[in-house]
Input
Amino acid sequence: MGIIAKKGRPAVPLAEAVLRDQGLRLTGPRRVVLEVVWGTDSHPTAEWVHAKVRRRLPRVSLGTVYRNLRVLVAEGLVRERPGPHARFDGNVSDHHHFTCTACGRIVDVAGPLADSQARALSARVASLTGLRVTHQRIEFYGRCRSCRARSPRRSGLPGERRR
Ligand SMILES: [Zn+2]
Ligand SMILES: [Zn+2]
Output
């Protein structure tokens, strides 16, 4: 049985079961942290999550939020996007990301991660490097819709032809 629910988010009772298996409980702050991350598509930072959590639990510290995010990541209930400033993702199903280079917005891109082209690329990387590739993820970059609307002339890839 998978824990994947609508939009790749597990349900709270299943999160409780996953944590219970590890001897962990869905404590008040942990539950609110989980609900905040599952409740947004914005791939938030820990600071953003902290601000939202404090609306419901005013005395929770950033450190508590951080520790709970780490637990939720370790248990596979939340994904972490590594980088200079870690972002957290409530969508735990396999998906790609599009990052807007103008405003920094990160958008989920659905799509099979193991289609034939992806498998061929993995096989090539494996044979060129001798590394064992288990999976891959593609990062897309460009301008999101609202940034394109703001400066339409600079949209599109360099060299892209207009039709
Ligand atoms: Zn943008
Ligand atoms: Zn995502």
Notes: The longest strand covers residues 96-100. The chain has two domains: 12-89, 95-147.
